[in-house]
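Issue: copy button drops trailing tokens. Both records pasted manually instead:
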Amino acid sequence: MPLRSTRVLALAAALAVVLGTAGPARAAAPPANPYLAAGGAGAMHGDTASSDTTPRRGPGTGAVAVHRTPLRSACPTVLAGRDGYPVAVCTGIFDRAPHVRLLDPATGAPLAELKLVKSGVLGGIYSYLDERDRLVVADGSGTLLRIAHVRTPGGGWELKTVERTPLTGAVPSGDGVVGLSPDWRGRVWFATAHGRVGTVDTTTGTVRTAALGEAVANSLSTAPEGAAVATDHALYLLRTGADGTPRVVWRRAYDRGPARKPGQLSHGTGATPTFFGPRTGSEYLAITDNAAPQEHLIVVATEDDRIVCRIPVLDPNGSGTENSPIGAGNSVYVASTYGYPYPAVPDGAGPAEPADAPFGGGLTRVDIAPDGSGCAIRWNAGIRSAAVPKLSVADGMLYTVERTGILDPARIGILDRYDFLAVDAGTGRVAGRRRLGTGFLFDTLQMAGNATAGGVWWQGTVTGVVRIAPR
């Protein structure tokens, strides 16, 4: 970055502190997708922009009530719509198949369950709730499903498949859907592990696809500007032609590094692209690269793929992340997963280099210059985030779970402690800490949480779901 821009940013940051506005920038909300459930918890990353923000307040910094619901499943996706009923998409510990579960919003108790056809490691994780609170998910048979939760005649609940759209022929044998997101016309965008992107008009059953020729290990994001996909080589912005066929608007390559890093699930970026910005909420796109030994945050202008910012983040001696950046206003937050011990990686992920590493954690805030001329690091925090952090724009807190070794904080073990944190987004300081539990039952395995009404937080673990509510 030019020295002049660095000085301008430093002066602006100093003035912000003096004027008492050093907290998160007042952000334009992510564009409200009319085909996503209302309330800020309709997708894993909160919205179709994958901003990892929520318009709701979180549990805050005071006392909380913690209730764990054991489900014998790893539950990376806990969604909720207008009616407030959490819908969890989990992978069974024993059968390795996707299970959809409806939970009681007041207690977290399971109300209904539906087992889906088995798919890959990432199958079903990146699902979403539509505008009618129905789960949209692709199962292992290559079928796009809409699943509603409805009352039974006896007053109970049922999870019921109300729509099926075959993707036969659009998804080749041996491939599988990784991510889903609706666009502003109600079409469902999808991306597959082998780099095929497509759109589905579920009212007609029409499916249109295009091949990128590069692997995809994360979900895709949508905004009025189009759909963003990060492959293991590049970031893409796509739109559709008149018949719905995806076409590439621009492609921006990044440094994919020499190999997969420990604590990542693929050789390339670990990030789902994040739309964000201070004016429209989607004028920028952010991802992380896989440069060695230190990765970079990359911010690109959505309109013309201009590099707004490319800055080294996290530990210079070894950094990487499997998490999508948080984007709000002019600020981006990046959490390290370098060294996190995933129990399994997708087929074809390749060996990690090095094979393993200590999980040191780290959380960094980067601020973009008001005129889009560059960026600078606002703060670094030594937080060992074991979940995808999420920013509440209502209370200015970053919510996450910290994993700490019992005998040695720098070493990972099955008897580690897990604490729910509220981190001041303006300073990076931990403002609240509440113990969730000790041992692998509480491992949040870099999963994303979501907030519902009343400041209730829903966090998936390797064995179920934890409900965290202010007292």
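Record 2 (pasted manually too):
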Amino acid sequence: MKPIWIVDDDESIRWVLEKALARENLATQSFSSARDAMAALQNGTPQVLVSDIRMPGASGLELLQTIKAKHPGIPVIIITAFSDLDSAVSAFQGGAFEYLAKPFDVDKAVELIRRALDESLRETDIEQGAAQTPEILGQAPAMQDVFRAIGRLSQSNVTVLITGESGSGKELVARALHKHSPRASQPFVALNTAAIPKDLLESELFGHERGAFTGAQAMRRGRFEQAEGGTLFLDEIGDMPLDLQTRLLRVLSDGHFYRVGGHQSLKANVRVIAATHQNLEQRVREGLFREDLYHRLNVIRLRLPSLRERSEDIPILARYFLAQSARQLGVEAKRLSPQAMQFLSQLEFPGNVRQLENLCNWITVMAPGQTVEIKDLPQDLVEERVHAPQPAQIVSAPASAAAVAAPVVYADPAAAAAPVDAVAGNWISLLEVEAAQMLASEQPEVMDILGRQFEAALIKIALKHTHGRKNDAAVRLGIGRNTITRKIQELGIGGAEDD
């Protein structure tokens, strides 16, 4: 962490703050004039700047203006013995984090510096995240299409909507779009809209003024201001509350916004890249997402394939993640044996690239030896693969509104002898074919019909497995006894015993 700079022509003030911050184990660097601090900015920057407002030569307001022009993310606390309204207004208009009048309580001053330090470290995390982003890896044709799209968009500022499953690497694509754009030298700021409570999301996006709500003890810049001149990545945009969708639409439409509790319109020069794992068209139809915002975001759509669609990339990704986790821990990178690599390449990875990365971190820490065999992988992963149920073939009932009876499900005796990758996902493929046929024939209530067939098939198999005992079948399926009883009645399933 960088030191806290103290700029004051009063030596006693510098001494008091130095000693108080030293007790908090915080490093400091002191200057007797604003000019000295400005000169020091050529060789380094502070984590937080604490400056007197009136000093011989350049004033604290001039220093504030200089540092905000070059390093807007550094919080500046202005201290003055002239606690008049004009000084306070000038300080806040210049972007000061807080205003503190002499004589001040030392403990309160340290508390204020602590708050500014937290804000500064938050800004630093944003900058470091962009600087440490790895390149996207992939040789599969589906990923080559993504790379070509990034290349075509490299000189554009157009809004992009990235779709894809959770964990497939949507933020990496957004960072790549930023890195290869004309805004590459400016900030890349990411915000997961689903991870922020609704009451705080507005402040996170647009910032707030001091006193805007309980706990708003200082003005705070939002993500739009932090990303000024650069790129703002809004992840999981489909989960954004409707009232905030309206505010976001206004920013995208006219480029202006207000901080929470503010009355001054601010101009946003920001490129917005949004991402979601949800079906936004469906969200629009359900009234959960504004159609006009959807069209604003959906200028260019970039679909990111799941890891299942590019399983040939698993070896190169696994080697990269093993090397990365080894560097982080300061150990030698582990290697996967050919058999272990083939085993991983045949897994489904529902968590996509993120799941593979977490697995490689586990291997680095937990697997014995430098060469990792299948037996060294997480036991639950191995057991799940070895004892996976044999795929089933589905003979579907006629696609009609009355066709709610369960399909016939039977084990395929040839499946056990077939290669794993030849049968993986077979029943899903058959389901997709059935759904496509029903949709093509404009069959109504497709979701309801297939859902009832799916539930009936599961319950029938579970009852057969438990010899008709409903309670045991419910336990095996992970549902309640009342639920399975109701489903049996609704679906007209026979062969169940009252136990």
